[in-house]
Amino acid sequence: MKRSRPTWLSASLVFLALLVSCSSQPPAPIEQKSYVESRTASTELSSSRVAGRHKSASYRVVTGDTLYSIAWRFGLDPRQLAFWNSLSDPNRIFVGQSLRLIGPAKSDISKRATTAPTNQARKPRTVETAVVKNRNTTKQLPPNFVVRGQLKWRWPADGKVVPAVSASGSRGLEIKGQRGQPIKAAEAGDVVYGGNGLRGYGQLLIIKHNEEFLSAYAHNEKLLVTEGQRVKSGQEIALMGDSDATEVMLHFEIRKGGTAVEPLQYLPQR
Q: Strands 189-195 and 182-184, how do they pair?
């Protein structure tokens, strides 16, 4: 028995050495991959939250988009969006086009403002200098749109009215009624979007009333007007439904300069 003790001790030492060697090896590659994927998922989630606050730098146009629906999605003023992307015609955007959702950096504007006088100083003729000044001003400042006349808002539907917040977090009204009930234009204007491309709104219509005001009519069962069509105040534009909603209703919003406003401040008292 005494002679077998060294053999037992040697075997134990070999086992311990193998155990230490195994424990010092780095984790298997699949564990590293899992860690990378979790970090990537976290980054993507963070990016999506930023995009939800319309801080994303750009947006790629998809089928069914209009400039107004994109502006509505990100809570932007359509005029500002058109200006940032040098769109002379807001009705001309194409699938795959990348639109910037934020304005130029202040440093870029300052740089252009400081370099402009230097270039102008090299031009001796007053007429040419004036032209350069006007051109630079147009690039730096949004177009100055004039609101013509006062809008006379009317209720878009009859029913029980409940203040509500949309899927995008915008203020609005829920008007609960019957399926197939007519929805009417709250004011005259042009239909700038009609479709179901904005999540949370279902079948949606957006009407442009002037250069400042838009109105939206969501969760419709059927749209009765099309994009580009001119509608009158009180004209039937859709039928009430529950598309992308839990019950039959009209979700109604008014936006001024891209910002949601309280509809009850504009609609007549009942």
A: unpaired
